Model the fold of this input.
Amino acid sequence: MHVAILNAGEEPDYLYGLVSGLAAQDGIRIDVVDADQCVGLFDRFPVVRFNNLRGNQRPSDPLPRKAFRIAGYYLRLLWFALQSPAKIFHIEWDNSILLFDRAVLPLIYHACRKRIVFTAHNVYREERDGRGSSLREWSLRRQYAVVDRIIVHTDAMKREICGRFGADAARVHVIPHGLNVRVAVRGFTRQDSRRRLGIPDGARVVLFFGFIDRYKGIDLLIESLERLAKDDTDLFLLIAGRPKRQDEFQQTWQERLAASGLRSKSDLRFIPPDEVETYMAASDCLALPYRAIYQSGLLFLAYRFGLPVVATDAGSFREDIPDGEMGFVAHGQSPEAFAEALRRFFASDLFGDRDEARRTIRKRAEERYGWDAIARRTMEVYSLALGSGTAQPGRGHR
Done:
């Protein structure tokens, strides 16, 4: 089986996990189509060929250069589709021009006699980010109709795609998100990591990690910790990640944090993979105070290091964070509810017996979210796509 995986310059961590799992299966060849971010990432897999069609993605480039770069990328992508021997095109993310990607590209791929598998990591990403529109919703409906198979990570996502966007349930397959195996676990200790970051050894450290945006609820977390800090002076908020966009929200939460009196440290930049473990090892729990989410890859990054997670009741968190076993889920999305979830965490064995808890969380996560089982299920979807018959452009498979 020959498969091309199209990543559009997004999420190399998930891509690496999927490719590493697939590369261990029998009888597969893989072409990865992505950008500079993945140069050298797959060199150890003999069955994988990397195609750097997207090149650099410097956001600081002037607009004319960006436009020229995007146009060149689409031309290279179309040529790749015309001459690629891969029978399966597995689209992980859409590219820059959403309407073209969703309504036109699938038809071109079908015309090139490709079967299309699409992973919907988010059912409707633009709506989550506050950028939804009737045109974008129409383009998603179109995309979900014309691809051969759709992969989602939770049952709730499948229900929404089928109910809201009219996708045929028989073509939608639930495959869990896998652990983040791209980031190495080197065994950093809590004490050494805190020393590197300048965090007191006795602090109760709550970590907020990754891109910062309104839907991720960092303002909700700050308000929750303010409530707890009245009775717990050992609380410490560690923020590691860059703002997704510069807007009024970023200024508002930073002003709120400065005025709160909370003990904290902020590292507002992209954290490279070789520094991630320092933040995970230094922390007592990862906070996911999201207002809206389908599923967060950060959950599976934390589990990689055995770090417990405290989250709001959003998306599939209640399914993936068993209370008292791998973390706690708040009863709601208010600051009061999140503060209470943090209280439960700090009163539990997940905090009190942290070394044993981390070993247990890692073991359970590897059993539930290992890439070998995910790759086997993905291969089954590929086989179903190959046997789904000739695509009918403009009509989908209903």
